[in-house]
Fold Alpha/beta hydrolase family protein.
Amino acid sequence: MSAPVPVSTIPVEAFARIPFVDQATLSPDGASFAGLLGVEGQQVIAIHHLFDKAVKPVATRLPEGTEATWIRWVNEDNVIVGLRALMPVAGDRWIITRMIGINTKSGKITKILWDRGGQNASDVLWIARDGSPNILVSANNSIYLDENFWPDVLRVDVSTGKSSKVVAGRENVSEWYADAAGMVRAGISYDNNSRKFRLLYRGQTGSSLFRTIDVADSRRQESLVSPFLFLPGSDHALAIHDDDKGMSAIYEVDLTTQADIRTVHVAPSGSEVSWPVVSDDGQTLLGAHHTGNGPPQWFDADLASIQESIDKSVGSRRARIVSLNADRSRMLVRIDRADSPGALYFFSVFNQKMQQVAVMNPDLGTRPLSPVRLVRYAARDGKEIEAVLTVPRGVAEKDLPIVMMPHGGPWARDTLDYDYWAQFVASRGYAVMQPNFRGSTGYGTEFLRAGQGQMGLAMQDDISDGLAWAVKQGIADPRRACIVGASYGGYAAMWGIAKDPDQYRCAISIAGVANLRREVNDFGDYLFGRKYEDDWKRMTPDFAAVSPINAVARIKAPLLLIHGKKDITVDFNQSQAMFNKARGAGKVVELIPLPEADHSFSREADRIALLRAIEDFLRRHNPPDAPTAAVPIKP
């Protein structure tokens, strides 16, 4: 048996490689799949026949300056793709959404609703399942608050792009919902002054009258009952809302009374329902995903049996059914681990065989990289915090240099999914700890709201307490700790070296927020601007007091700022302003602007530049192979 190849010998380019296929989805007959393929370092939309090599694949490059957000089959001949782009509008930069249709045989592209004058035209409510090329789309037609601003519902033939209006826009209604038959049944309105949401509903008879059946005040953190599946032949629907323990679960709800009729599904203890799996025809709940990283729990007996059989065959690896064809006889299954990007397989119920479609990262293959596990520790106030810990392969877990890597959001969560950043850093000799600090999602409403008023305070202490735990366990060397994060994690990296200046040897902020007040005020002109302001103001009573840009004087550790100039989530100026302020104060600070990079680093070239910058900075300021002078750590 050959000796394993040391992880540290794997080049940067291998970790940075764009997945061979992303968002893979099966055609209705299960003979073809569509997805985003990594080609020459960029993503293209591709349609491949799985069995007949004589069928020429269709490959389409994304329109210049756009990102693909989703891919869906309409029928065997047509695929639709959601796009978004950052464009200049009224002297500002706005995210604009549109769709394209692609003929799976000819590759012909049809622009769908690109003649609309509004910001968004890609909210698909319904897809016909009778073989016709018809869909329902919610789309607005103006950027100004006039009668055309509120989205209409349009019936669109995706093969031609022709459309007709089904439901006219109504004041304050920004979202519409349709049932499996293609009837618009509900809408959600929002008033930015009162911060109140309303659920409008009409029964299955098709009456044109929508009436308000539920009201929620966002200032009181109330939420509407939002249906995701209308049950045929009734005014009942399936919806997700909190149970009596504050954990999201699935209920059958009578929409006319808002009363729960029955509890459909509660997640296992300690987790929540994250999203449902609904049949292709939109009429049946097949299963539910839970927070974490496991496969869904299937309610359909056949799918449950298939999942059980696959699980037994893959051992310690994880198998997830990621796409089903119309009659659920064929499926795409991703088999991976937290320490491997894995591969995509095709499975047919007829021959019960797994056929490999693609290795997600051909450079890394399916071999295990650095081991990953979940750990739990008590924060200083006793609250239990869960974290993902990755340690270098083949190295004893003792006195390792460590990188704390808080997630973005902050309303997000790290799980036991393959993470190419964490694996890369671990491959260079560092332990990597990703704490799900209070305010993270997936642990229930109580844990989520525990972050309110604690941004830069207890939320940051949870990260520090994770470091202290790793030191106490003997895993980490307190003299060799750095903090690296992106988006909110970038904020936490900057704030970490300001709040606890003697704790870290260095920090790397990737697309981080340096000025919280500016970030909040930037929401002022948005449709939900006042709600967003309320949400952020709940996180801290004083933005300026916990903004890194106002605490530069306290910083001692070297700081690296990396930011894409095409970031449409956090403005590049956040990093530029922090760099200017820190450099002016005589701090050790570097800024690496990436002209073509977006917030998620979707281009391979930008991923390579990012990982190289991280590796170089860590090696210079926290070399993994040599201890340095003692740096005290707070207990």
